[in-house]
Amino acid sequence: MPRLARFHQVGGPEVLQLDEVATPVPGRAEVLIETRALGLNRAEAAFRAGQYEEPVLPAGIGYEAAGIVRAVGEDVRHVGPGDAVSVIPAFGVNDYALHGESVLAPAHAVIAHPSGLSWAEAAAAWMMFTTAYGGLVDIAGIGEHDPVLIPAASSSVGIAAIQICNALGARPIALTRGSGKRQALLDAGAAEVIVTGEQQVAAEVHRLTGGQGARVVFDPVGGPGFADLTAAMAAGGIAVIYGALAAEQTPLPVGDVLGKKLTVRGYVLIETTAIAAKLAAAIEFIRHGLETGVLKPVISEIFDLDDIVAAHEHLESNTQLGKIVVRVPR
Prior knowledge:
The chain is of the alpha/beta class. The protein has helices at 42-48, 119-139, 156-167, 182-187, 201-208, 226-231, 254-259, 270-273, 276-292, 308-317, and strands spanning 3-7, 16-20, 30-39, 59-60, 64-72, 84-87, 102-106, 110-112, 147-150, 171-176, 192-195, 214-219, 233-241, 263-266, 299-304, 323-327. Strands 3, 5, 6, 7, 8, 15 and 16 form a seven-stranded mixed β-sheet that branches. A six-stranded parallel β-sheet has the order 11-10-9-12-13-14, sandwiched between helices. A three-stranded antiparallel β-sheet has the order 2-1-4, with no helix packed on it. Helix 6 (226-231) links the parallel strand 12 (214-219) and strand 13. Helix 2 (119-139) packs across helix 3 and helix 2 (119-139) packs across helix 9 (276-292). It is globular and about 60 Å long.
């Protein structure tokens, strides 16, 4: 019987276990995938901890996977048995669970494996690049020479944001708490790196931009540091907030918002994935980038499925640069 990563109570990584389950049978618009690699995300850790959506226990887990199609529902035409595919996170976290050996995915979220990618890269690509595309391209409309501030730049979405900025001629300015990741972020394509624990963000951004400030902020953190970001922004800029990693409250810096006529915009991934035209545009942009090499997932660590708890522990350590992937040995 195939194994599925599940948790029977909310909590830390230790609540995860590999349960043997019956091989699922695809419904009319579903695809059965024999997985080869799984991508880990902060949303899954928050779900497991009871901080995202309320889980229906025992709950499966997992937004991203890549593998081989083993069966399809009667309404599925675009993929078939034997095809190599990957899955876009375009469904509710309680509706499907991809972190297992044989899993179901909704057909609209399953696409042919992009050429030239390893299993690990295919499993890593879609959450990071779709999230960054929706915030930076669809909402903020970044363009040539736009200074873009990217807090938590060493995360998988942060790395994706750097690459998308470079693909469109924008200027990615990476923010990181300590100096240990400075060179790695420069190597990943950041135009500049600001170490927030050592440098004053607003002063450094204004120095780097000749006093202009950043037109775009792409922030998954929030918290008290958000005031430093608005102080660093240009007049008429937009701050796209797509997460709340900080435990503290996020103040609204009213003086900067009014004085600079800033836009503060919340963004969730479903805005991109739930609308067919937006999702199609994102897939086209990302697939082209992956196939030409302009976009490339950065893999931090690869764990085996048996070590799923250790993989989640590493995710929560905040020491990685890029994506954590789980391999499914065959």
